[in-house]
Design a protein that fits this description.
- The protein is 78% helix and 0% strand.
- The chain is an all-alpha fold and 197 residues long.
- It has one domain.
- α1 runs antiparallel to α2, α1 packs antiparallel against α9 and α2 crosses α3.
- This is RiboL-PSP-HEPN domain-containing protein.
- It comes from Actinokineospora diospyrosa.
Length: 197
């Protein structure tokens, strides 16, 4: 298991759990207190998007490190140049959301077709992960940029900015994170001849 996935399941998950616990304290675990929890729902969705972006960036870093190690360079300066300049520079994950398209672009730098790999390994789940990730990022942008049009788009697809929506998206991202870890490990093991983690 990558360090990125360990962090997703550990520290990143704990931060999300804290927000869910705060939501429960405010609502008393009961439905129907919309006026008390709207902003907490927004905070949870923003944090969920941020934590997943951090996970995806960390996993990409580990993949870059594995690829650079596989080149067998003995000069650490050359390793840095190849890893940082060519494989990490101008990543979508450093400047934008962890959208499905952005992930595909960043992982393609490593010669990997991330979504194709996910669809091959998880044929009945990958499209759902992709869709929920896209919706989360649309919601995140709507909240962060006070764009009601984006929020309405998400709502019109059946996803109100509520705790059940946050739970559903979190569950999907938990599975997606595990799937990404698995397909990256498989890809780099095949490519380099040794497991990256």
């Amino acid at each position: 298991m990558s360090q990125a996935l360990q962090s997703w399941q550990g520290a990143r998950s704990a931060r999300l759990d804290n927000l869910f616990a705060a939501h429960k304290q405010v609502s008393g675990g009961k439905r129907g207190r919309k006026w008390d929890t709207d902003e907490l729902n927004h905070a949870i969705l923003l944090r969920l998007a941020a934590e997943f972006q951090g996970f995806a960036r960390d996993l990409h870093d580990e993949c870059v490190d594995a690829l650079v190690r596989a080149l067998g360079l003995t000069n650490s300066r050359l390793e840095d140049i190849i890893g940082i300049v060519n494989l990490r520079a101008n990543r979508k994950l450093d400047t934008g959301n962890a959208s499905p398209g952005g992930l595909g672009t960043d992982y393609a730098r490593l010669g990997m077709e991330l979504w194709a790999e996910l669809k091959t390994r998880y044929p009945s789940r990958a499209a759902k992960w992709n869709k929920k990730l896209e919706l989360l990022n649309t919601a995140r942008n709507g909240i962060a940029h006070d764009d009601e049009t984006k929020l309405q788009k998400v709502r019109s697809e059946g996803w109100p900015m509520t705790l059940p929506t946050a739970r559903s998206w979190r569950s999907a991202l938990d599975a997606l994170a595990g799937g990404m870890d698995t397909v990256c490990k498989t890809y780099f093991t095949t490519l380099t001849g040794s497991a990256p983690w």
